[in-house]
Amino acid sequence: MTRKEFILSTAAVAVAGCVDLPCGIQKEGAGMLKGISPVVSPDLLKTLAEMGHGDEIVISDAHFPAHTMNARVLRADGLGADKLLAGIIPLFELDAYATPVVMMEAVKGDTLDPEVEKAYRAALKYDGKIEQMERYAFYERAKKAYAIVLTGETRKYGNIILKKGVTPVEG
């Protein structure tokens, strides 16, 4: 079985709720997987699994020009970015060798709401450095990201980039 076939079968489990996996295990349920937040859609789960170390994903606010920036856009309408971040982080290892979290800085003459960063830090359980990036530089980086998730976040400057690290293997 290829990695792509495994990823697709895993996503099918999340969608269909009952699928015979190639390994002979049958997964039953109401479209849910143990340990995976219901805010993480099957498409997002697949995307996170496809990403390699060093790849980046943008979790954007509702106003972000995602479809202009990147061909791979996932929708999470109605969800606040902090809720989605909290659902992603148990599945996603942040990069340990580079600053793994980037946020868009305020445009000159505008101000940031410190509660946005505070909420994102809490959702990620992250107290490390967050790089603040100028708006147009952030756009250029988003163009190179693996994917953009367009959320229902309405707070100003509610855009964040996560850089994936190496997922530890147990056993």
Q: Profile the largest sheet.
A: 6 strands, mixed
In total, the number of strands is 8
Report the average pLDDT across residues.
Answer: 86
Which structural class do you get from the secondary structure elements? alpha/beta
Side by side, the strands of the main sheet go 4-7-3-8-5-6
Distance between the termini: 21 Å
H/E element string? HEEHEHEHEHEHEE
State the helical fraction.
25-40%
Radius of gyration, taken over Cα atoms and rounded to an integer in Å: 17 Å
Instruction: Report the total helices.
Output: 6
Approximate shape: globular
Strand content: 15-25%
- List low-confidence stretches: 6-30
Architecture overview:
The model is unreliable at 6-30 (pLDDT under 50). The chain has helices spanning 3-16, 42-50, 66-69, 81-88, 114-124, 135-144; strands at residues 19-20, 26-27, 56-60, 73-76, 101-104, 131-133, 147-151, 160-163. The protein has 171 residues and is α/β, with parallel strands linked by helices. The chain is globular. The protein is built from six helices and eight strands; from the N terminus they run αββαβαβαβαβαββ. A hairpin with a 5-residue loop joins strand 1 and strand 2. Strands 4-7-3-8-5-6 form a six-stranded mixed β-sheet. It has a two-stranded antiparallel sheet with strand order 1-2.
